[in-house]
Amino acid sequence: MSSEIAAEPAPQSVPETTKTVEPTTAAVEVNPTEPKPEEAVVAPTDKPAETTPAPAEVPAEQTTAATPVAEPKDETTDKKEEPQAPAQPEYLTKIPGLNKFFESLPEILNKTGHTEMWGVPLKDSNNIPTVNVLIKFLRANEGNVKQAEEQLTKALEWRKEINPIEIVKSAKFSAKKFEGLGYITSYIDPSYGETIFTWNIYGGVKDLHSTFGDLDEFIRWRTALMERGVQELKLNEATEVIEYDGEDRYQMLQVHDYKGVSFLRLDPTVKAASKKTIEVFSTAYPELLREKFFINVPTIMGWMFGAMKIFLSKNTIRKFHPISNGANLGREFTFVEDLPKSYGGQGAELKDAGRTVPLIDDIPAGEPAKAATEASKEVAAAKAEEPKAAEAEPAPAPVPAATEALKEEAVKPEEPAPAAAAEPAKEAEPAAAAAPAGEESK
């Protein structure tokens, strides 16, 4: 028994030694349990840094935890704003090819060195007038972006060369050549609002060679009339994007009156002027035409419509309306009460109500007719004296005879010499005969 009791303290001493060793390695953990006040007092006083950083670490952890929480908020807000900045207007995605067209616009403007189209300074896709201009070029090419880019390039190059804006501002044209040939009127259409009409009165031509002989001058005059009509459309003031497949209020109506001009079939200068006008206007003024009316059109004018089909799109051809009797034009515009009386309305004639380009009274009104009469007499006299030579000399007459078609007409009456002499006189007199026809058409 005693030996067992004596042996018991030995195992007790082992844990005591381990207990004493443990507090040395972890004094902080033993202090609260060990009854040693001295060590408990010394521990907090000797090591204030150890107790102080413990609570200080809590706010540090909180700040580090708060920082990443704030950062993602900023990131999320940035991510929400990013898609809003590059967001494209609806029309850029809705109209096929328009966005791509705008991407190429800066290069086109740089290449041509000209940035104005129909009075609109071409800018970016946020500029409504610019958007409408590009849509018109797209529609004219049935959505083909490459062709629209090519046409816009050619149109800008042409405008840079001829400068239509300056022509309208300062150019003045010969009254002898162009008086009574072109007008602009405007009427209120219930569907479209104010509608611009441009009128070309080819029956008012007094001297074919004088009016159409200088092709560049004729194109400048015709451009001035067209450009003034375009200015009245106010494309540069547009605030809404036009529809690609819908209505377009930035278009005009055109009326071409051919009363009394059946001899155009035989005249090469007129053919050249008509062809050049079609080429220039189909390139430089696409989709500005809502409808075009050819009135008092004789059947022999079929060649002109055939020529138009070569240069114009199918959509444009559908807008053409030939009318044999000019008085029936009023049936097409029942909403227009003040249409000129000559065209089936109740309004004043074009010479009184129409607007036109500035003209210069360079030659008295009676002189062109007198000159034409004298020229016809000279030609008739020459034909009577030298029939054979006269067949090759109708050039001095107001109606040139340099075409193959006219030569064929001249060859037919070769046998009866008197008849041959009479024919040139008839062709030399349309200048005088055309004037009354023009007056009636007004």
From TrEMBL:
Which compartment or compartments is the protein found in?
A: Cytoplasm; Endoplasmic reticulum membrane; Microsome membrane
Membrane topology value: Peripheral membrane protein
Listed under catalytic activity are: a 1,2-diacyl-sn-glycero-3-phospho-(1D-myo-inositol)(in) = a 1,2-diacyl-sn-glycero-3-phospho-(1D-myo-inositol)(out)
Q: Where is this region: Disordered?
A: 1-88, 368-442
Report the InterPro entries cross-referenced here: CRAL-TRIO_dom, CRAL-TRIO_dom_sf, CRAL/TRIO_N_dom, CRAL/TRIO_N_dom_sf, Sfh5
Q: Out of the domains of life, which is the source?
A: Eukaryota
Required cofactors, per record?
Answer: heme b
Residue ranges annotated as compositionally biased, kind Low complexity, are 14-30, 43-70, 369-382, 430-442
Keywords per UniProt: Cytoplasm, Endoplasmic reticulum, Heme, Iron, Lipid transport, Membrane, Metal-binding, Microsome, Transport
Gene Ontology MF, one: metal ion binding
Residue intervals of the CRAL-TRIO domain: 216-351
* Any one GO biological process: regulation of exocytosis
Supply the Pfam families for this chain.
CRAL_TRIO, CRAL_TRIO_N
Q: Which family does it belong to?
A: Belongs to the SFH5 family.
Q: Give the protein's biological function.
A: Non-classical phosphatidylinositol (PtdIns) transfer protein (PITP), which exhibits PtdIns-binding/transfer activity in the absence of detectable PtdCho-binding/transfer activity. Regulates PtdIns(4,5)P2 homeostasis at the plasma membrane. Heme-binding protein that may play a role in organic oxidant-induced stress responses.
Tell me what this protein is called. Phosphatidylinositol transfer protein SFH5
Organism from which the protein derives: Talaromyces amestolkiae
